[in-house]
Design brief:
Length: 288
């Protein structure tokens, strides 16, 4: 049993096998589909959601877990597992209320369970960049590292974890209000594949391509520009109902870069609301 519990939420999109093997605790986001309130990866799963989404006449909305959701998780860890050190890791606070909700829960938990120490971290990132920070933190926790040492690992990863992804359209990001600085691209994209990333917690445009193949080539070039030819990286290929596309991208990346660890991760429905089905990309960080 580790001395430190790692908590995150469903938007990290970490594969279930890793959640279990690394003892990662997670809290589901909410999806509002008309009058229906769904819990991400609990009452709605990926396959069902991505089959339905293209038929939707109105885009669902999402909501982060509330303070009570995080408080329940913190109290459960303390009372049932006897762990009093918790690191709670969340997607960018500039695109979600999860970080602030967790901070509120941290304050309440400190009053109800005085011995509980909780560190709440804003990754200023999303998807498996957020996920990598959670995974590496959980691995450090399992080796018995101190809370300060585990937090240091996350802080080191924050500025170097990078996301690049593409989709057939930006309409889902635009309709969901998560378009960030890529807003100017929306009206110009007819048969053009946009590349987007995240900087300082906000979606930003990285360019555009005439085809998915060219978009993937540009992704590889951008990673190579950071780490060099055959540079060493840890990489997660992310997709939304587009496993074949993720595998195509993987094949291109692995001919020009050295992938020390590779994960294939499908975005959770709460993220897929904003990206739309067909999204594919990568989340990586360099190894020095």
């Amino acid at each position: 049993m580790p001395k430190i519990a790692i908590v995150t939420d469903s938007c990290a999109s970490i594969p279930e096998m890793l959640l279990t093997s690394l003892n990662i605790h997670w809290v589901p986001y909410y999806i509002h589909r008309g009058s229906e309130v769904l819990r991400d990866l609990v009452t709605i799963q990926r396959e069902e959601f991505y089959q339905w989404l293209p038929t939707a006449k109105e885009l669902p909305t999402t909501a982060s877990p509330g303070p009570g959701d995080y408080l329940n998780m913190y109290e459960k860890i303390a009372l049932e597992e006897g762990i009093t050190d918790i690191i709670s890791i969340h997607m960018t606070s500039k695109g979600s209320g999860a970080y602030q909700a967790a901070k509120t829960a941290q304050s309440i938990a400190g009053e109800s369970i005085p011995c509980l120490r909780i560190e709440v971290i804003d990754t200023l990132n999303v998807s498996m960049c957020h996920g990598w920070m959670v995974i590496e933190a959980a691995r450090e926790a399992l080796t018995g590292k101190s809370m300060a040492e585990v937090v240091d690992v996350i802080i080191r990863l924050k500025p170097i974890c990078r996301m690049i992804q593409t989709a057939d359209t930006l309409k889902y990001l635009y309709m969901g209000g998560r378009i960030g600085k890529a807003k100017q691209m929306v009206g110009t994209l007819l048969n053009i594949k946009p590349l987007i990333s995240m900087e300082d917690g906000v979606i930003v445009p990285l360019g555009q391509a005439r085809s998915r193949l060219r978009a993937y080539q540009l992704m590889v070039e951008k990673v190579e520009a950071v780490v060099g030819r055959m540079g060493k990286i840890k990489v997660a290929y992310v997709h939304a109902a587009a496993l074949e596309e993720a595998e195509k991208l993987r094949g291109m990346v692995e001919t020009r870069l050295t992938c020390i660890e590779t994960i294939i991760a499908e975005l959770s429905p709460a993220l897929g609301v904003h990206t739309g089905p067909g999204t594919a990309g990568l989340c990586y960080y360099p190894l020095i």
